[in-house]
Every structure is written in structure tokens, then in C-alpha cells.
Amino acid sequence: MTQTTPEAPMRRQRAQVRVRTLRTDRWWLVPLLTFLGLSSFLVYGVWAIIDNSIFVEPYIAPFASPCLAAATCPEGAQLFGWAPIGDWYTLSPGLLILALPGGFRLTCYYYRKSYYRSFWLSPPACAVQEPHGKYTGERRFPLIIQNVHRYFFYAAIVIGLVLAYDAVLAVVHKPLGLGSWILIANAVLINAYTLSCHSCRHITAGRLNHFSRHPLRYRAWTFVSKLNAKHQPLAWASMFSVMGADFYVRMVAKGIIAFPYA
């Protein structure tokens, strides 16, 4: 056993795999599928910002809600009839709010693991050679910004409530419309994903030393902990549900999907 001495201090290094991989299975398949899935979300998000078909009563595209710009938001799409951004703003209304749910997902603990492995290959999989020469974790710029995740969580809660409100309005005004139930399903998944966040679990009762003294917070923590165990599938399900719901509303708004049956 090698002992460290003051003359030969132990250096903290990442475990090294001397060959390209020790794996014999298709270890690259999961990172590849993750890369394709996350890339599709990014590509769709760019298209959604460019596209202006965001509203057909009573449906509003989730990527543009809450719609806060007076010049680019149809009257029925404005949240509570309120458009705090004046006529001077003529760009996509989605640009005003997409940074909030986008930042929440970008800094999410699960998504970090996903895109670290699939985009940065750091590391691509267990027992696979690390392609990067240095590893600093999340202690330096830009990855230290990941620490703002909790604040994006607060914003994501608000966005989730707005999407739930939009979905309820759609059901009230068009109870038999397929789009109404698509928006409801999306709101449920979005809010379930948000509440399953690790930060939410910590906020509810993470610092309590005696659960017995805080029974309500303990119940909340227990509920969030159950959701937290499903954080990964909820992350993927909500990602595709919000894309699907947004795409559906835009197709109805464009007349590609016949509105009487929508």
C-alpha cells in the first residue's frame, strides 16, 4: 500500500481508463439517443420562436405563454388581458419567457447528467475513456452558473401554474376539444416534473432535523420524494409533451388541423 508523505502529497485525479472502453455492450446508444432527443428540443424551440402562430381561441401555444407583449400577443392570448410589455416590442413573445423554463431545464440535475454525457462526453458512459484532459467540476465559469438552479425553479413554478390556467380555460371553453385535453395532460406533466425537482425536495423539508415537529412539511417532503424518484421519466415525458402540445396548437392556428374537430 502506497503511503503519502509531505514530500509526495496525494493528488486528486479522476479515475483513468487506459483503453478506449472496457464495455462490450452498445454503451454509445444511450448517449446518442439522448443527444438526438435534446437536440430535437433545441431545434423545435428555435422554430417556435420564429413562428408566430401562437393562438387560436381558446388555445395558446405553451412556448408563448404567458404572452406579455401588447404588439405581438393577440388580445385573447394575453394573461388576464394584461400585456405589460408595450407596443415597442415587436419580436416573438416567446423570447420574453422561454429563458425561464429553458434555464430550469438547462440547470436541472438530471439534464446536466444527460448533456454532460451526450454533448460533452464527460464522461460518455461508465468504464469508457474520458476524452477530456482536465476536470474541474462545476467550480468555475461557466458551469458554476448551474448553482442558480433553485431560482429558475421558482420561475418554473409560476410558468407551470400559468400553463395549468391556460389548460383549464381551454377545457371550460371547449370541453370536447382534443386540444383542451392535450393542454391538460401537458400541464400535469410539466407541473409534476417541476415538483419532482431535487431543489423542491430540499426546499420542502431538506433542512429539518425533526420531522415530527413539522408534520405538514414532512407530508409535502414525502410527496415530493415520491415524485423525485420519477424525475428522469418526468423530465423526458414533459419535454415531449410541451413540444407536442405547442406543435398541436400551432397546427390548429395555421388551419392544418381542422378546428371543429380540434
UniProtKB/TrEMBL annotation:
It comes from the Bacteria. The keyword Membrane applies. Keywords: Membrane, Transmembrane, Transmembrane helix. The chain crosses the membrane at residues 27-50, 88-111, 151-172, 178-197. This is Succinate dehydrogenase. It comes from Nonomuraea aridisoli.
